[in-house]
Amino acid sequence: MSAAGFDNREAVDVVVIGTGAGGAPLIAELAQAGRSVVALEAGPSFEPKRFTPDEPTASEIYWLHERLSGGETPQAFGGNNSGTGVGGSLLHYGAFMPRMDPRDFTLHSETGKGVDWPFGADELMPWIARVEAEIGVSGPTPYPWGVPRTYAYAPPTRNAPAQIMARGCETLGITCKDAPAAVITAERDQPEFGVRHACVNCGACHQGCRNDAKSGVHNTYLPVARAHGADIRPGCMATGIVLDGRGRVEAVIYVEGGVEKRQACRALVLAAGAVETARLLLHTGLANSSDQVGRNYMTHVSTQVWGTFDEETRPNHGYPSALITEDMMRPADADFVGGYLMQSLGMMPATWGSLVARARGLWGPGLTRYLRHYNHVAGLGINGECLPRPENRVTLSAERDAMGLPKPRIDHSYGPNEIAMHNHATRVMTRIWEAAGARDIWAADRAAHMIGTCRMGTDASTSVVDPHGRSHDIDNLWICDHSIFPSAAAANPALTIMALSLRTAQAIQQS
């Protein structure tokens, strides 16, 4: 029997695998509605006081289980895009919180490329606004792009990279503003959690927030879920799904403390992310009549440009991504479809040093000489649309992990559209840095985030789940994470994932 009183042998209403952006809002909604909910989280439960800006120590909140990376543009995992623990990747995400551009829902209709979502921006907007209100998001009012909106909190103080970006953009006539951020800048009494304190501009967002200024789900939705009886179980790795004689889910197999256990349930929600959700389905052979599970893996084109400045920048200080421009969402001179957001970048020293070594190919004395300029550098970065391609996919490798499961292999290659976007962004960001007075400017070709692999759609032959996240094949199996995105869009995915989570919770209650 669990601490919350649920007996594994007695079927609970819902088991949710994953407690991050996809799982947590849904867990809270269902628990508040009186459903019995068990949430399985592979990682541990962390106390905020444990978080530290020390980068090697902070890696404990990253998903470091080995993944095999292939393709022409192999992607780095771990701290780049994957978290572990109660709260998921939101423990270490950067809290950059732009809304998805309405045009990105209908990219195929607009351009003939990519895939349209099965609904438009109007359908998701109320859920997006609700998430912003419930977790606490800061930003400028008015916001110059898209639908008019009001943010509850004033933006964090601009750090040096943001001030330099503003200077360069103003010279070139590019509009930029303080970025929407899931960071509170005034004390907040969070329901069922308590007091969250204002951002102190420490700069360690990616290492976990000690004073809970960063809005995750561990300090917003999950306390509500617990208060209403949800049983959240850390250290529980799901390894199997059991079907009954009618082909419906009747239980989940998981490992806790080296012991295999079974939790009976009346419905199952997968919210483990684009890689782990696909891996579990491929391992069990379920929900894949369309042969789409694992396919259309996408990232964001996340090119960065760095430069050295005469003034001191101390890029580890302040909220890292304090400035944004959406002027490149549909640039007039684009030789690609879709668009990209741009943000200012600060970075912690070890993370930056690793980026320098990889992107500039520096080593030994050449690397150490350049790293001495750390307190005078600043960066710009983008998040850009990535088109779905079936050959970009998650598959099961022949290697086994500690649980005996096949390790996932992720093949990822840029196509012509992503390459053209990278080149365009590199030119634009270089011009901004030149206008701002940078020297020794260089670019890093990189990809971030994990998107796709269990596409939603109305056609069961070309998608894995319906527009609410319900499996076409198994009517009590749902998916609620960024694996169901039909396209990558340009915005960071966290806000959209949480909005979809609330929407899917409503659909489960109505089913």
From TrEMBL:
SUPFAM superfamilies under this entry?
FAD-linked reductases, C-terminal domain (SSF54373), FAD/NAD(P)-binding domain (SSF51905)
- Which Pfam families does UniProt cross-reference here? GMC_oxred_C, GMC_oxred_N
Query: Domain Glucose-methanol-choline oxidoreductase C-terminal, which positions?
Result: 388-500
- Tell me the organism's taxonomic lineage: Bacteria, Pseudomonadati, Pseudomonadota, Alphaproteobacteria, Acetobacterales
Domain Glucose-methanol-choline oxidoreductase N-terminal: residue ranges: 119-301
Organism whose genome encodes this protein: Tanticharoenia sakaeratensis NBRC 103193
- For this entry, the protein name equals Oxidoreductase
Keyword Transmembrane helix among UniProt keywords: no
A GO term, aspect molecular function: flavin adenine dinucleotide binding
Family from the record? Belongs to the GMC oxidoreductase family.
Q: Which UniProt keywords apply?
A: FAD, Flavoprotein, Oxidoreductase
